[in-house]
TrEMBL record:
Name of the protein in question: Flagellar basal-body rod protein FlgG
InterPro entries to which the protein is assigned, alphabetical: Flag_bb_rod_N, Flagellar_FlgE/F/G, Flg_bb/hook_C_dom, FlgE/F/G-like
Residue ranges of every copy of the Flagellar basal-body/hook protein C-terminal domain listed in the record: 252-295
Compartments it resides in: Bacterial flagellum basal body
Organism: Candidatus Carbonibacillus altaicus
Length: 301
């Protein structure tokens, strides 16, 4: 009976985690750039039990299965990888700081380390990856040298291909800047008040995970590399910093919608709830069987 309890406990834990993943997907139905999480299961372990004395051995009487009896220990969630191959719908917003990714890739972000330290420190603990392109400009710098930094809603800096924050105000003064253009190849340009377009020498960096489970969710639709991961991502930009051969392009003034299919998630939610109910009923039946076995033992003694 203890074996049954262990199996049911593992199954209930896996079902609860699956339910949490489904609820997380449903909660992010309208989150820009959100990639739905999938659920993968695996067996916990198997025990090999000896056959009863005098039982058939392998090869006897046409038996093709191996000896012993394989008894499973239940199932578990082996991972919740991103369904990153699915492209979300592109919705135009008109905001010049909204960037949609069409194709593979993630934006690279970095937090400001300390109040007096320049953004762009090298601590990997402060590096994040996201597909949510709802950015805005943060006014910083000094009165004599004002700058605009491209940041996300949490204040993390969007990085270029040189691992530096995307900043406006160095090449062309802000007083002479009419608009900021970002090309589909990720190049950052400035349209000045004289109607001329000036390059900033910066291109927004896009990275692709080398495998689906290389990134760990940190909330706010942002991810980090797994601890100890060295080659978990690769740069999609070419040697010139452009997206010319990657098959990915940036769309300014638009956002990528979530890839969550609400119909699929609601179906999965009902399946998980039904599964948990059946497991709870099985546990109750196992407890009743244990009680009957104890009662028989008392009466026979």
């Amino acid at each position: 009976m203890e074996r049954i309890s262990i199996q049911l406990r593992h199954a209930l834990q896996a079902s609860r985690q699956a339910l949490d993943t489904t609820a997380h997907n449903i909660a992010n139905t309208d989150t820009p750039g959100y990639k739905a999480r999938d659920i993968t299961f695996s067996n916990v372990y198997y025990d090999l039990l000896n056959n009863q004395p005098g039982g058939e051995q392998a090869g006897e009487n046409g038996r093709v299965t191996p000896e012993y009896i394989r008894v499973g220990g239940g199932s578990r969630i082996s991972g919740t990888p991103l369904i990153s191959e699915t492209q979300g719908n592109i919705v135009e917003t008109g905001a010049p700081t909204h960037l949609a990714l069409e194709g593979r890739g993630f934006f690279k972000l970095r937090e400001w380390l300390t109040g007096g330290e320049q953004a762009g420190g090298q601590a990997e603990d402060n590096v994040y990856y996201t597909r949510a392109g709802s950015f805005h400009w943060s006014a910083e710098g000094t009165a004599g040298d004002p700058r605009l930094y491209l940041v996300d809603a949490s204040g993390r800096y969007v990085l270029d291909t040189n691992d530096q924050p995307v900043v406006i105000g160095g090449v062309v003064p802000l007083s002479m800047t009419r608009s900021i253009l970002i090309t589909p190849e990720s190049e950052v340009l400035i349209q000045a008040t004289d109607d001329r377009v000036y390059p900033t020498g910066q291109s927004i960096a896009l990275y692709e995970p080398t495998r689906p489970d290389a990134l760990l969710s940190r909330g706010d639709n942002a991810f980090q590399l797994l601890p100890g991961e060295i080659n978990g991502v690769r740069l999609l930009n070419d040697a010139n910093g452009l997206l010319t051969t990657s098959g990915t392009r940036l769309i300014q003034g638009a956002l990528e919608r979530s890839t969550v299919d609400l119909t699929v998630e609601m179906t999965r939610l009902l399946e998980n709830e039904r599964h948990i109910q059946l497991l709870a009923r099985n546990w109750q039946m196992a407890d009743q069987m244990a009680g009957l076995a104890n009662e028989i033992g008392r009466r026979s003694s």
